[in-house]
């Protein structure tokens, strides 16, 4: 967390991107509040995921450049634990701020107030999934100078279920439909990612550092 806060510009970029993208929809698409309310869950979710992607490439980049990453893999502490700490730190400085900011932007999109708590809960799970799954892609591309685009291509197909479940949860709540099932599926997906990705990320880092 200390290292992350030393690069404050990298922390603010996802938040600025999130605000700008969401703000452009009322201007460029429609000013009809009814239509905006229908599109709000998808707009907020897609914008939040894209904003989180901006910082994924930096998760292991600086550690790789200065040799710290190799020392982490050789340390007496299980590397899976260190990787999990990196993932949680990334989520705390990206996913959590985006989630906290989402209620303010939801007002701009006329999202019903009753759906805002569900939006925040779904984003908490969804952005954590992004950090977990993105860590595997970040580990695979950390040795590339311009791996950001490749990272996005690698993990975006895996994030489609997260986007579908998250958007469906908020949309169902906003339209008075059953939403608990979608949230349960999103939670199950996040739990599975939490169990598997530290091991997969360490394996990917061993391949990358070994090369």
From TrEMBL:
Give the GO terms filed under biological process for this record.
cytochrome c biosynthetic process; cytochrome complex assembly
Q: Which GO terms describe its cellular component?
A: plasma membrane
Q: Does the keyword Transmembrane helix apply?
A: yes
Family annotation (Pfam families): CcmB
A Gene Ontology MF term for this entry?
A: heme transmembrane transporter activity
Localization, UniProt: Cell inner membrane
The superkingdom listed in its UniProt entry is Bacteria
Q: Name the UniProt key words of this record, in alphabetical order.
A: Cell inner membrane, Cell membrane, Cytochrome c-type biogenesis, Membrane, Transmembrane, Transmembrane helix, Transport
Topology in the lipid bilayer is annotated as: Multi-pass membrane protein
User: Is this entry keyworded Transmembrane helix?
Assistant: yes
Give the transmembrane ranges. Answer: 12-31, 37-60, 72-93, 118-142, 149-170, 182-205
Reported function: Required for the export of heme to the periplasm for the biogenesis of c-type cytochromes.
Q: Which NCBIfam families match?
A: ccmB (TIGR01190)
Family under the similarity heading: Belongs to the CcmB/CycW/HelB family.
Q: What is this protein called?
A: Heme exporter protein B
| Organism in which the protein naturally occurs | Reinekea forsetii
Q: What taxonomic ancestry is recorded?
A: Bacteria, Pseudomonadati, Pseudomonadota, Gammaproteobacteria, Oceanospirillales
